[in-house]
Amino acid sequence: NIDQPLITDFNSDDGGNLIIASGYTFTQGANAAIFNGADGLIMNLSAPPPADNGVAGAFYETVESGGVATLSIADAISNFQFYMGSPDTFNGITINFANAALSPVTLNGEAIWGGTPPGSGDQSLGFTVTYHFDAPVSSIVFTSDNNSFEFDKLAGSVPEPATWALMIMGFGGAGALVRNRRRQAVAAAA
């Protein structure tokens, strides 16, 4: 149920290059790899998210124990979705904001998907996880402390120009109300 514009579903072109939307880069660090769902469960390494399991051409990313993979975003996004499988307490995501003054947010285990059901590593469970950020995001880092973190279908977007316009007008309107109330309070005191 991905409803944001697709960034990548981990398929590759004829040359073996990852197909990824313009403005995004996906970097695999140590202990990270793309697997084909057709291969099914790979013992002690990777379990495809349920919708990918046994499906030819349903590629997905696996970040193994101690591994890292990073989605970098040229034009920061405010909405992000991905599909994950076999949720467990070892999965980790760090969200880095475009404004370097904002501290990164790290979510581990159940905090990633909201905690229901608990993260037992059940390979029959898959979640579409959706985040809406108050500040634009420039990168998302996926890690695993143990086991593997399997995910697919990264999607995201920036607010539409009309949405930005409404937000700016809203901020301006709120500021005008505050200024007006201050003037009224000063006049009433006089």
Q: What's the gist of this structure?
A:
With 190 residues, this protein is α+β, with helices and mostly antiparallel strands.
Describe the model.
By secondary structure, the protein is α+β, with helices and mostly antiparallel strands. 15% of the residues lie in helices and 41% in strands. Strand 6 and strand 7 (105-108) form a beta hairpin. The radius of gyration is 21 Å and the shape is globular.
What tags apply to this protein structure?
190 residues
Q: Can you tell me the overall shape?
A: globular
Mean residue pLDDT? 87
Given as residue ranges, the uncertain stretches (5+ residues, pLDDT < 50) are none
Radius of gyration of CA atoms, rounded to a whole number: 21 Å
**Termini separation (Å)?**
59 Å
**Helix count, per DSSP?**
1
What's the helix-strand series?
EEEEEEEEEH
Task: Estimate percent helicity.
Answer: 10-25%
- Total strands: the figure is 9
Our estimate of the beta-strand percent is 35-45%
Q: Main β-sheet, in a few words?
A: 9 strands, antiparallel
- Give the helix/strand class: alpha+beta
